[in-house]
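Query structure, 183 tokens:
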């Protein structure tokens, strides 16, 4: 249970008394200065205001009870706001498919050694979308080259050449798997 002085200060704060509000602001500023979050002064001022607003919103809810001291409560809120500010300014980089790790996991060597189907599925996943589409239509949906050409809006000869090149690529991927990692 909080001391009566804390509860009295909380009531004054909720009533909008300037002295109580200034006290909450000073506690928030202490956290920002002490923790050295490396925030710009404008960011620090914003965090102080966000802290005051968050404390007021939390304390004005029905059923709110101060389980810790009022100063400790304000400091907890201020720390959370500082952490949020640091996270927002942290540099980020978007991951793209071009940055994907192409190295094989160590256990895949064992799987590939015992499962020819896994090797083939891996090789198919390494192919481009156009190869995957032609192979899917021809081998899995059992379509003839003429039907594939009609479906994709290409010439039948183009589909035959594309299939030839795709199979050549699969063979190369499987040979590279057999050769192991390059040293």
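Result returned for the query:
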């Amino acid at each position: 249970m909080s001391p009566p002085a804390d509860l009295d200060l909380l009531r004054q704060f909720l009533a909008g008394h300037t002295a109580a509000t200034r006290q909450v602001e000073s506690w928030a500023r202490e956290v920002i200065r002490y923790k050295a979050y490396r925030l710009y002064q404008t960011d620090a001022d914003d965090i102080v205001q966000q802290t005051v607003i968050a404390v007021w919103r939390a304390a004005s809810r029905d059923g709110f009870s101060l389980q810790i001291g009022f100063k400790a409560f304000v400091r907890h809120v201020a720390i959370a706001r500082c952490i949020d500010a640091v996270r927002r300014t942290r540099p980020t980089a978007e991951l793209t498919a071009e940055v994907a790790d192409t190295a094989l996991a160590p256990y895949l060597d064992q799987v590939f050694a015992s499962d020819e189907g896994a090797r083939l599925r891996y090789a198919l996943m390494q192919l481009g979308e156009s190869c995957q589409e032609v192979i899917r239509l021809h081998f899995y949906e059992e379509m003839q080259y003429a039907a594939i050409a009609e479906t994709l809006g290409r010439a039948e000869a183009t589909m035959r050449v594309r299939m030839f090149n795709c199979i050549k690529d699969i063979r190369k991927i499987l040979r590279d798997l057999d050769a192991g990692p390059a040293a």
